[in-house]
Amino acid sequence: MAVELYNDGKHVCLAFYDLVHEEAEHAVQANQFLVVDGDHGALIDPGGNMTYNGLLMGMQRFFPIRNLDYILASHPDPDIIASLNKWMVTTSARVLISKLWTRFLPHFTSGRDYSARTIGIPDEGMLIPLGSCRIKALPAHFLHSEGNFQFYDPVSRILFSGDLGASLVDHGQASEPVQDFDRHLPLMEGFHRRYMVSNKICRLWAKMARSLDIEMIVPQHGARFVGKEMVGRFIDWVEQLECGVDLMTEKNYRAP
User: Fold this and answer.
1) Helix (H, G, I), strand (E, B), or coil: what is residue 71?
2) Is residue 104 a part of any domain in this protein?
3) What are the residues whose beta carbons fall under 8 Å from the beta carbon of 178, sequence distance 6 or more?
4) What radius of gyration, in Å, describes the C-alpha atoms of the chain?
5) What domain count does the chain have?
6) Domain-located, residue 252
7) CA 21, CA 29: separation in Å to the nearest integer?
8) Tally of CB atoms within 10 A around 244
9) Residue 253 belongs to a domain
10) How many CA atoms lie within 13 A of 27 on its CB side?
11) Mind listing the pLDDT tens digit for each residue in 130-186?
12) Containing H/E element for 192?
């Protein structure tokens, strides 16, 4: 299912939900995103092999894949980038990922040397030119990957937040925005407490997020947060979150 998140006639942001076939619903639910500016496009977190065919067909309704400039990967998990080989073969796009992970990408391909089409994002982030706009690769290290980036589109004011904000929802329930933050919390808490590294990192991220004009936060799993009030509630929650090493004790490190 394709959902139009933003469209001003020239600049378009699309989300693709629940592309995994019914027989594979045991797999984790994941979202994919396309940002288009004029004749240029960037595909964010394209996913694994189970989403490739559906995403390719869905995209072609809106944007010719031959014009795809970039594949943007928040981090190197299989649900983010396992379909990389197919995208490298079917497009001439360049792939951007943390510089920590560029030499791991060949494990997702046939072994062909794609280094000329691979750009390592420096730890401090970078601006990514796309048509007449510039996508911001924002540092989100340890949320949850060591080298992790989120992608902020200043035209639509959408933050594509990767695993931060992820919620564990059933297939078919991710395409609607969060309506009640308090009722949504139980769908996020367990995941964030285990997968995010520490409250220190959460507080650093919250400070950075508040410096941006964000109208929507769209995670790679589950539902999105729309509007200033909902975005603010999410940032406030992340800032206070105890997670990861904050929760570890000696009992977690006993030999079985």
Assistant:
1) strand
2) yes
3) 167, 184, 223, 224, 225, 226, 230
4) 18
5) 1
6) no
7) 11
8) 21
9) no
10) 16
11) 999 999 999 999 999 999 999 999 999 999 999 999 998 877 788 999 999 999 999
12) helix 186-195
Paired sense of beta strands 149-153 and 126-130, if any: unpaired
In a domain, 255, yes or no: no
Amino acid in the structure at residue 16: F
DSSP 112: -
In this structure, what token pair is assigned to residue 41? 């496009």
Residue at 102: amino acid letter: T
Tokens of 137: 């690769």
Tokens of 10: 């020239």
Q: Which structural domain, as residue segments, surrounds residue 227?
A: 2-247
Structure tokens at 241: 């979150």
- Within 8 A by CB and 6+ apart from 206, the residues are 235, 236, 238, 239
Q: What is the pLDDT of residues 213-249, one digit of tens each?
A: 999 999 999 999 999 999 999 999 999 999 999 999 9
Checking if the pLDDT of 25 tops 70, the result is: no
Residue partners of 195: CB distance under 8 A and separation at least 6: 144, 163, 166, 243, 244
CATH code of residue 170: 3.60.15.10
